Amino acid sequence: MTLVLVGDVYDLRDTSNLWCIMVKKIGKYIGLTFLLCLFTGLSYGQVKLTIKLADNAFYNFSWIEAIDLYTFAHEKDPENIHVIRKLADCYRNIGRTEEVEKWLAKLVELNEAYPDDIFNYSMALKSNGKYDESEKYLREFSKLRPEDGRINLEQSLLDYINFLVQDSSRYVVENVPFNTKGADWGPTFYKQQLVYVSTGDPDESRDLKYNWDQLPFLDLYAVNIDEYGNYSKPEIFAKELMTSFHDGPATFDSKANRMYFNSNRTSKNATRKEEENNLQIYYADFEGSQWVLKGDFKYNNVRDNYRHPSIDASGDILYFSSDRPGGKGGNDIWWCRKVNGEWGEPVNLEDINTEGEELFPFIAADGVLYFSSNGLGGMGGLDIYMALPDRGVFTTVENMGFPVNSSRDDFGIVLTDDGMSGYFSSDRPGGLGHDDIYKMDILYIPVQISGTIRDRINTFEIAGAKIALLDENSDTIEVAYSKEDGEFVFSAFKQRNYKLVVTNDNYITVDKDVSTYGKLPNENIKVEIFIEMNFDLMAEPDQLEPLSLEMVGGNELQIIQIEHINYGFDSDKILDEAKLILNKVIDLIHQHPDLEIKVESHTDSKGSDEYNLRLSKMRAKSAYDYLVSMGIDPLAIEYTGFGETQLLNHCDDGVECIEEEHSINRRSIIKVIRRGKFKTNRNTRSIFYF
Fold first, then answer.
1. What is the DSSP letter of 420?
2. Which CATH superfamily is domain 446-531 in?
3. What architecture is the 196-411 domain classified under in CATH?
4. What separation in angstroms does the CA of 104 have from each of 74, 101, 114, 160, 444?
5. What is the pLDDT of residues 71-100, one digit of tens each?
6. Hey, where are the domains in the chain?
7. Residue 85 and residue 361: Cα distance in Å, rounded?
8. Residue among 586, 575, 564, 517 at smallest CA distance from 689
9. Burial letters for 301-337: b for 16+ Cβ neighbours within 10 Å, e otherwise?
10. Does residue 144 contact residue 118 with C-beta atoms inside 8 Å?
11. 17-48: string of b/e by CB count within 10 Å (b at 16+)?
């Protein structure tokens, strides 16, 4: 993943010389350097001693030292299964997938592979781009361990890889100029800086090396980014917090001016062996002109790793990766909430964690959780995934696809607030060092705009309406037609402004603005569009042909014309635009004195049922009063209120809706009616309103 050896330490062709060098290296354990260097050959006991020393290095996480010893032992005992398996394990721990494949292939050839060896062999083949062979051995593993959760997505590996590659045009990925020949990874933003961890150039860094991979220990570095995207020269970040061991990566709470970061720094409760191998979370505040260490994370425990912290925008929720007890795999993603200044008990994100490794969480500004995993299938090694929130719960997990992900380890992503650009880390081929940082621009993020076309008055769904999707330049992008249930759907992009224009025969054309700013990737933005009949295009006024017929109390009622008016929030006042509509009705009544008026008033769902019923009756009475004031006979007007019992949309009690959606329900329907059965010599209308 992040710590990879380049080249072999010793020339294996001169075995006697290697033995002398090796014994000098391990003389601290046995004190026999001089005597053992006299031997030009090795006895069985000496091979056994070499393996013992290699095992000791292995269990102390000194992978490079262990590789040297195991390799030498293998030359003397080529069929030693223990040595072969340990070599594969060592190389897997430092990310040398070609070597992992080589040594596990030997176990397979010798028919000595355990089920876990088969799985690891499949993963190594996949990391090396050998997808056909990887799928073959994955299927073999699935027969041996059908219950293993890591094979769920892998069963159709080739199809899945093709799916992840097919939408690669939405990303632009490039190596950044400040990478070194060492390891550079874990980027995060702090003001105008990009802060990350690095070993620096191994040829120029300090002599102290990490046993794991013989690279220098990690430090926090930073580069300034100007308005044109240019980078300054890398410099040590928060030098006052540096130790002789690992420091970083970090995350920043901008509100509190606080930094949470990883470190191996000494703990009074730790032994030297524990503190060198287990990362803990610490925090520091920026005071004056420097960072001041304030303490460590409440749940730190030197027996476990607490790594890769990520704080949300509020500063009250912390995500991290840990192998603490209670998880599902090696490392899981956990989170905890700050209440009254104290961090609550960590909670395991069970819905996204697997039996594999989940690492490097990053909580984005829009609430999407990004993380890396090798337990969810993917292209090979660690892949970067995003988990979409649904009322505070992460259930939907999606692979970010190629070229953000590759066949190697991809991890440590960070995004700008708009979610359209950022950085991530990878040890993919073509980089400058062991791990490199890559800049990423996202050209588009897919979202959906879907909805329903309804009749404004009666709310029934309208089929066959034409809906045009327009961009910010008013250019038509796509056209759709509503289905029998009135529904339509468009594919759109995040961070755009759109307009929907709806047209239909006998209806007034309407448009609706839809913004995808701040929406989640692949979010479905649902809208309801109400369109109103254009009565001017219907029958001539003097014909007074009914739009529909109703049965009221066993008697037929002709609906001659329908209008509607709206009200302000919590108001029964007749607005100016409502007066214009009522005046049209008044003119019609004056022309045809036999006509009557029915006023049916409604409210939104805000407030209690009793209050809304009373408000709707007040609204109906206001319309009645206006009509009477304009000369309409009070006996020709019938009015009533229905409260919130006949909502036009989904905005019921307890449902979150924007003001525009609530306002649709605040209306009065004005029906112009004539009592009695309608008779005509002309053909019956082919389109009735009801």
1. S
2. Immunoglobulins (2.60.40.10)
3. 6 Propeller (2.120)
4. 14, 5, 10, 25, 41
5. 999 998 999 999 999 999 999 888 888 999
6. 196-411, 446-531, 538-675
7. 31
8. 564
9. bbebbbbbbbbbeeebbbbbbbbbeebbbbbbbbbbe
10. yes
11. ebbbbbbebbeeeeeeeeebbeeeebeeebbe
Check whether 47 has a pLDDT greater than 60.
yes
> Cβ atoms within 10 A of the Cβ of 526, count?
13
**Tokens at 478, concatenated:** 């796509």
Q: 599: buried, middle or exposed (CB in 10 Å: 19+, 13-18, 0-12)?
A: buried
Long-range contacts for 356-359 (Cβ within 8 Å, ≥24 apart)?
Answer: 356/150, 356/329, 356/330, 357/329, 357/330, 357/331, 357/382, 358/321, 358/329, 358/331, 358/332, 358/333, 359/307, 359/308, 359/321, 359/331, 359/411
DSSP single-letter state for residue 533: B
CA dihedral 618, 623, 624, 627 (to 10 degrees): 160
Q: Which residues contact 148 (CB under 8 A, 6 or more apart)?
A: 119, 141, 142, 355
Output the pLDDT for position 151: 66
Q: What kind of architecture, by CATH, is found in domain 538-675?
A: 2-Layer Sandwich (3.30)
Residue pLDDT, tens place only, 497-517: 999 999 998 889 999 999 999
Asked, colleague to colleague, whether 446-531 and 538-675 share their fold, the answer is: no
Give the whole-angstrom CA distance, residue 120 versus residue 97: 10
3 state DSSP class of 240: helix
DSSP 297: -
Distance in angstroms (rounded) separating the CA atoms of residues 671 and 648: 17
Q: Which residue has the tokens 């490097």?
A: 360
